[in-house]
Amino acid sequence: MYDKINANKKRRVYKLPELKYKRVLLKLSGEALAGEAKHGIDSKTVGEICDQIKGIVQMGAEVAIVVGGGNFWRGRNGKEMERTTSDYMGMLATSMNGLALQDALETRGIYSRLQTAIEMREIAEPFIQRKAVKHLQKGRVVIFACGTGHPYFTTDTTAALRAAEIGAEAILVGKTIDAVYSDDPKINPNAERYDHITYLDILSKNLKVMDSTAISLCRDNQIPLIVFGIADPENMVKAIKGEKVGTLVKD
Ligand code: UDP
Fold first, then answer.
1. How far is the CA of 162 from the centre of ligand 1 (A)?
2. Could you report the per-residue pLDDT of 22-68, keeping only the tens digit for each?
3. Residue 232 φ/ψ, nearest 5 degrees
4. C-alpha 232: how far from its chain's center?
5. CA of 144 to the centre of ligand 1 (A)
6. CA 57/CA 52 separation, integer angstroms
7. By C-alpha distance, which of 108, 219, 246 is closest to 160?
8. Measured in angstroms, how far is the CA atom of residue 180 from the centroid of ligand 1?
């Protein structure tokens, strides 16, 4: 691991005044890692996302990631199964994505730590809030896997929870779509694209940004969400600079 890093080691370049958000939490759905196949892990896609993460880390941003697992398994896939069992399978799926992200970040010379809400000490640290913050302060990317560790939740809710716990100033929601719309723009060409929207509007219009528990948690803790297209390599940098990108969700 360290060999990989040292081979790519470059001096970190800090340009902090440029940053609107210094500590951010990036929510990546499992599907975002799957590329065209929509299932499993596409190394090229993961690499492209990690190039963007490297870009913002080198600008001085402190970056935590919550990764989903829908590219392997979602709780609702297990129709014949007990819900809790199926949810635990979904949580385990996120750990594979976490490992893939960690590997791709290290290949790019970025130090990272994988922390899981279900202990798997041979491959990851357990989630410890103080330790996570310490890693961030040292410039390491912290990847949170296994969701909250509890069934009946999602990794969207995990993103809101971890963002509050680590004091993230914003949640970057990298999507396959470029912003929040009133309807699916692929199906409805008249769908309205929002530059700004409030948490309450998302809940009342039942927009598919994040699930309602996650949105409520963000609202309660006043954590802004920036929803943007993950495919555009400029977007993450624009988002942490506070430039207009995708949709800004706040009151
Ligand atoms: N999950 C869970 N508790 C959590 C987070 C996730 O039970 O705190 C399970 C749930 O079954 C979910 C699956 O893990 O469907 C994968 O997470 P999610 O659907 O949020 O992944 P994404 O859609 O972001 O890829």
1. 14
2. 999 999 999 999 999 989 999 999 999 999 999 999 999 999 999 99
3. -80, 115
4. 16
5. 12
6. 9
7. 219
8. 21
User: Distance (Å, rounded) from C-alpha 159 to C-alpha 67?
Assistant: 8
- Of the given ranges (3-7, 57-61, 85-89, 108-112), which has the lowest mean pLDDT? 3-7
pLDDT (0 to 100) of residue 4:
59
Distance CA 185, CA 162 (A): 31
The answer to whether the CB of 116 is under 6 A from ligand 1 is no
DSSP track, 56-99: HHHTT-EEEEEE--TTT--GGG-TTS-HHHHHHHHHHHHHHHHH
Whether 71 contacts 40, CB under 8 Å: yes
CA-atom Rg of the chain in angstroms: 17
Asked if residue 211 lies in contact with residue 153, where contact means CB atoms within 8 angstroms, the answer is no
**Token reading at 214:** 């996650």
- Residue matched to tokens 């969700």: 249
Instruction: State pTM to two decimals.
Output: 0.93
Cα→Cα distances 127→209, 223, 239, Å? 26, 21, 27
Find out whether 27 and 171 touch, Cβ atoms under 8 Å. Answer: yes
Q: Which of 28, 96, 93 has the alpha carbon at shortest distance from 63?
A: 28
5 C-alpha to ligand 1 centroid (Å):
30
Query: Six-digit token pair at 179?
Result: 């912003």
| Rounded Cα gap, residues 5 and 111, in angstroms | 7
pLDDT given at position 2: 46
Q: How confident is the model at residue 8 (pLDDT cuts 50, 70, 90)?
A: low
In the block, which residue shows the tokens 């004091």? Answer: 167
- SS3 at position 216: helix
Q: Is the CB of 246 under 6 A from ligand 1?
A: no
